[in-house]
Input
Amino acid sequence: MLAHSDNTQTQPQSLETVGRLIDLDHAKVDYGYKFDEAVAEAQKRVPPTEEQIRWVIDVTEELCNVVVNAEISKSVCVLPMSLDKELPWEFPQATVYVGKIVRSLHFQRKTTQNSGRRELTLEDLRLVHWQTPLPPRFNQRELGDTERIGTIPYMSHELLDFSVLSVIPHTPHSIIHDMESLFWVLLYLCLTRKGPGGDSRDELFDQPAPLEKSTWDLLLIEQQEYPVREAGRFDPLILHHIHPYFNDVKPILREWWRILCLGFKRYDDAESIEYIYTPRLFRLATSKWLQNHPNKVESEEPYIEMMKKEDMRRRKDQMEILEHVADICGPERCC
Output
């Protein structure tokens, strides 16, 4: 993974590590990826012309009622990658794309409510600098039936959906798919647990019939039967039901979901910044949350004690089982 600066508008520094990918149950390494080469290629990128930069800024202001700065214009013009080499990404497409980003962050609504306006920055739109090196791409790997294994509730929808694979049959297992799996794991814990330690929520068990609507909704979510397809439906259908203990985690879940929704959308058969740079954007969102919630980061010591307590409980259970077996079968056969 690439290191990044806290300031999204500055050039990131290198950790010079080989790109790694967890392919469901199997670790994969992109041996063809060389960070130094990625940096060199990023430095060679040609920025849009001043006229193109101004055009994106003006059209965005006209359509979205917001003002974006030149760095945003450069990033949305340069970083998205067309899937068809004969049809390169053009700056008119960039204006449509930046409009979707603005709407996903509700800046139109905020601007309407506030009398004054300021230039939005890369940090405002959660974007990266236009000369950010490409991460490992894993484009040389194709999805095969033998690889479609794993814990199904946490697998990327794109690798499970045969309708997607029929349209894009050679979809590589890429970084965004692993980040989606991470999202599902965190969301599942927030929905089904009532705090640290792994205790399940009481309302998921021993409910009198008929079930309360909130409990029924939780069960539908747990069984993956809730139809969530758009970013706007995530709050009322899903976040509304997470356990109160995890309320402070909502901003991370909300932002990760926004990134994934933008990443998996196809913009005239092009990959967006959110698709290409998913880990970096996840990390930026998490870092911002940590800055805003310094008192919410707990020490590991209580959890170490909880782990020791759980180990002792399991050992006690094992000893009791062995004692029962010895009573039934005799100590010789038990050994």
